[in-house]
Write a structure and sequence with these properties.
The protein is mainly alpha-helical and 280 residues long. The chain has 12 helices and 2 strands, in the order αααββααααααααα. α4 runs parallel beside α11, α6 packs across α9 and α9 runs parallel beside α10. Keywords: Cell membrane, Membrane, Transmembrane, Transmembrane helix, Transport. It is a multi-pass membrane protein. Belongs to the binding-protein-dependent transport system permease family. Pfam families: BPD_transp_1 (PF00528).
Length: 280
Amino acid sequence: MPGDPIELAIAGDPRLGPEDAARMRALHGLDRPLLARYGAWATGVLHGEFGYSRLFAVPAASVLWPALWSTLLLLGCALAIAAAGGIALGVLAAARPRSGPWVDAVAVLGQAMPSFWLGILLIILFAVTLGWLPAGGSADDGLGLRFLVLPVATLAVANIAAYARHTAAAMRVALSEPWVRTARAKGASGPRVLWRHVFPNAAVPVLTIAALDAGALVSGAVVTETVFARPGMGKLIYDAIMGNDYNLALLALLLVALVTMLATLAADVAQRVIDPRISA
């Protein structure tokens, strides 16, 4: 992170001098070598001590947990909608070749639209012009579903496009396999062949991409949460980095890495359930 947090903290107060800066560095442990500071931080994390947020003047964990819940709710809804919509479009494109070109066109359009631009368009249309939904923020209590609609749609559109293209490609490969012709020769109906035999084989790469997207969605949430003024992990990481809040930024990035690892593990388990060949 750029800049010295202590210098930035005392810059606005002419009463503070070099002695005060040295005292503040010693208080926050910034006068020690980098490896010593990292070791102290890692040891504290193992003991459940996450440090103090200089930006919010409270323990870092107390700031992080509400933001984590808000972002997990946002990402969970966006990922579920993107997976359902993208898989449906991909299966349609593979099962009906005539629909493939327009599905590809929709997918390219969805991936080409910047999330901040789409978010602003949705705000202008549904919040400003029609007045159906709030322009941003979050509910004080409860899930606040009305506040989720626009940011979830903004995050889901690009991922729907990506899942549609990956699903269609994987389905086309699976449909060309000899065992598909065998299943049809045995009298299996078209939908049964498609969903019982073809889709489980095509779902494996899509699951892997979805798991890796769990971490990538957080970076998209930075822009989305900023556009919709929604408090969450993305906006918190941005504020922590811009405010040189090392403890808060490190803890937030650690949780993002942990979420990505857990999502990848869940995808591996789901692959073994869907495709018996992997567990064989």
